[in-house]
Structure formats: C-alpha cells, structure tokens
Structure of GntR family transcriptional regulator:
Amino acid sequence: MVSDNKIPRHLFIQQDLLKKIQSGEYAQGQLIPKESELTDIYQVSRPTVRQAIQFLVNDGFLERRKRRGTIVKQQKINQEFTHIIESYDSEMNRKGLHPTTKVLTFKVDKATSEIANNLAINELDAIYKLVRLRYAENKPIVLVTTYLPVKLLPNFLHNDFKHQKLYSVLEKMNLPIVQIRRKLDVLKADETTSDLLDIEEGDPIFYFHSVGYSHDRTPIEYSISKYRGDINSFVFELNHSS
C-alpha cells in the first residue's frame, strides 16, 4: 500500500489505522498487526510505523502491552451527569449508544440509618429499594442502587423500570428531581460488583452517592452508583464565582 505523495507517510498510516479502528475492522481489545507486518503492508520503514502508532497511543486509541503487542484501546464514555440532570437513557441516546436496563431488585425494605439520613426520614421507615444494572451497547456500565421513601410514592411498585425512566415517572407524580447533590469516591470492586460489571475483582470503580431533591429541597432519591473505571470518564463544569 502506497500513501498519497502529498501526505507524510506516517500521517497516512495513522489516518488509515484510525479509520480501521473506527470502522471496527480492528475491534476494541484486538491486537493490530505487528510492526514488521505493517512495514510490509504500507511499504515503509519501521521507524515510520512506530511514529504513526505512537500518535494513536498518545491520542488514546491504541495501547502497548508488554509481551503482547499493541491493542485497540477501549474508548471511554464521557458521563456528563455531574453538571446536567438527565436520565441515563437520554444521555446514552444522545451519545449514539444503545442503552438497556436490567432490574435486579425492586421491593419494599426498611431504611438503615444511612438511608434515613439522606432521605430525611426515620430509621426503619419503609423505603423502595431499586437495583438496576445499566448497559450501553450490551456492555455493563454502571450498577445503581436507588432508595425512595414509600410515604411520598404510593403504588410505586407497579412501575417497570426496565422500560420506564425513573425521573420521568417521578415527574408524572409531581415530584420532579430539580437538584442533585453528588459525592465521588474511587474504590476497588468487590466480588459481586466485579461479576456484575464484568471486571476483575479489585479493579477501580467510580463510586457516587447522590441525593435527588424535588421542590422545597424535599429528598426523593438516594442512589449509590458504581461505574466501571476502565470505560467511564466524567465531565465537570465549573463557573467562576462572582
């Protein structure tokens, strides 16, 4: 393969490799051809191939692995919920990703002291416990455990949150989430979390505690979200204080 004479050879190779990554010809997690093979494919020297590969490594598309070679790196999903109140489904759809949800648990339970403090209710008060595993393109992205006060949400169990959006249901019940407070920690995945998110035990996860408030700062939702650290990144938007 010979590049256009107007384009530097390393840049042509870089663009061609990127095109194959984006088209799926070189899939995420797959080894690309060895440097010796690429020199034959593109009819260039090995330093030229290395230069092209290094650009793609620097840009986060490729990753060099010791004793394995160079693989196509898993692209991270930029999560913007740190400054936008938006449902998971809506955000994934906006990014061109197909979201799905598996409901693992949905039942009435009793509030622990932690849940009670965050929902401004009494310990042992009745709460709904909703556990959902959220996917994008059939890959598990985040494990979310949500608690909601029963006294504010009668007849809530009939909702099917495999297909319905929690925030849309709350809005229809005149309890829209208008403000959210979030706390972020970075922890290691335990055995259960690693199994559900399809990662190794001990891998890093982003661990969010969120409290969603309706009008008059009434706490409606307390959620614990565990995001995979390998394929999620988070966008924070800051404004200068006046």
Residues 9-72 form a domain with the Arc Repressor Mutant, subunit A fold (CATH 1.10.10.10). The chain is about 25% helix and 30% strand. Helices lie at 9-23, 35-42, 46-58, 88-94, 113-119, 166-172, 191-197. The two ends are 58 Å apart (CA to CA).
